[in-house]
Amino acid sequence: MLGEGDKAPSFKLESDLGKPFELKDFRGQILVLYFYPKDNTPGCTREAQAFAAASKAFAKAGAAVVGISKDSVKSHIGFREKYGLSFPLLSDPELVAHKAFGTYGEKNMYGKKVMGTIRSTFIIDAKGKIVRVFSNVRVDGHAEAVLDAIKQLK
């Protein structure tokens, strides 16, 4: 997994907003890039709702929030509409961004080793450098911890 101080790898992924997004689209602002396993699952839903609930606070802090999973654009559209999410969700079915950031690999699920998305969040500064990494994220309280970390950067 990439770490603090590393340059964020570039990517171009389709979004639920009908257009592709690239890392360079966020130059000049702080980017919260979070990787999550699956739309419409309990943990991923709570995480997305927490980021959406704090969206005004993230904007005030100068940060954009973007979620990435391997789900399809169609799934993302339904997920965004169902829960009123206010930020883009990017589709990475080929795991290009997942692998570039190191967020896909072996993990424990109910005591069993499986391959999957490792729930992770990266704070990327205005110049494209990773300034904070949260790996193996616990959902509850995570959005608030990310927001606090952004405020500490200023």
How is this structure best described in words?
- The chain has a single domain (27-153), classed as Glutaredoxin.
- It is built from five helices and nine strands.
- Helix content is 31%, strand content 29%.
- The radius of gyration is 14 Å and the shape is globular.
- A hairpin with a 5-residue loop joins strand 8 (120-124) and strand 9.
- The mean pLDDT is 96.
- The strands form two sheets. The chain has a seven-stranded mixed β-sheet with strand order 2-1-5-4-3-8-9. Strands 6-7 form a two-stranded antiparallel sheet.
Care to give the gist of this entry?
This protein is an alpha+beta fold and 154 residues long. It has helices at 42-53, 55-60, 73-83, 96-101, 142-153, and strands at residues 12-15, 20-22, 30-35, 63-69, 89-91, 104-109, 112-117, 120-124, 130-134. A hairpin with a 2-residue loop joins strand 6 (104-109) and strand 7.
Describe this protein with a few key phrases:
alpha+beta; Glutaredoxin; two-stranded antiparallel sheet; 5 helices; 9 strands
CATH hierarchy: architecture:
3-Layer(aba) Sandwich
Give, in spatial order, the strands making up the sheet with the most strands: 2-1-5-4-3-8-9
CATH superfamily: Glutaredoxin
Question: What do we call the CATH topology?
Answer: Glutaredoxin
Task: Specify the overall morphology.
Answer: globular
Round the Cα radius of gyration to an integer and report it: 14 Å
Low-pLDDT runs = none
Instruction: State the helicity in percent bands.
Output: 25-40%
- What composes the largest sheet? 7 strands, mixed
The number of domains: 1
